[in-house]
Amino acid sequence: MLRGLTPHILIVASDRSRVQAGDVRVVADRIAGAGALGGLYTALMEAPTEQVLVIGCDMPFLGAPFLTYLMERGRDADAAVPRDEHGRHPLCASYARRIAGHLHGRITAGDLRVGEALVDLAVQELGPDELAPFNRDGRLLLNVNTPDDYLRARS
């Protein structure tokens, strides 16, 4: 699906040697131990484009129409982030590469919470009403992190 949206796909991993991705570029975290925020920072630094679509690997129900819309909403902002009844989903968002320095500052200060890193940025939030056309079954932003999540996803 992503190949239909962009030729620039990369996977950020804490340990490159543990990821086999065929012809997809795999990069190691630039700052070890910085968690998801470090992965986001690495993606922004490694991406060849000024706008970067970041997607967690645990979101199986995303579709091209939604991701295209998310990219469109992020064109004139520091970030475009969907928000559903569970809150913001900053690991399924569009980011401007120019915020990498801001993220690096947060990491250096020891504040590794991705959601908190959005403070002081120009964020376009996509709320439930805006997500509705892409979320007809309520699973658009479902994260599959546990066996229970997997069972829910399969049902």
Describe, in plain words, how this protein is organized in 3D.
There is one protein chain. The chain has 155 residues and is of the alpha/beta class. Helices cover 31% and strands 19% of the residues. It is built from six helices and seven strands, in the order ββαβαβββααβαα. The strands form two sheets. Strands 3, 4, 5, 6 and 7 form a five-stranded mixed beta sheet that branches. Strands 1-2 form a two-stranded parallel ribbon. Strand 4 and strand 5 form a beta hairpin. Helix 1 packs antiparallel against helix 3. The longest helix has 12 residues. It is globular and about 40 Å long. The mean pLDDT is 94.
Provide tags for this entry.
155 residues, alpha/beta, 5-stranded mixed β-sheet, two-stranded parallel ribbon, 6 helices, 7 strands
Strand content: 15-25%
Distinct helical segment count: 6
Structural class of the secondary structure composition? alpha/beta
Question: What is the succession of H and E elements?
Answer: EEHEHEEEHHEHH
The total strand number stands at 7
Sheet with the most strands, sense and barrel status: 5 strands, mixed
Termini gap: 22 Å
Shape call: globular
Low confidence ranges:
none
Secondary structure topology:
Layout: E1 10-13, E2 25-28, H1 35-46, E3 51-55, H2 64-74, E4 79-84, E5 87-88, E6 92-96, H3 100-108, H4 114-117, E7 123-126, H5 128-131, H6 147-154
Parallel strand pairs: 1-2, 4-7
Antiparallel strand pairs: 3-6, 4-5, 4-6
Helix pairs in contact: 1-3
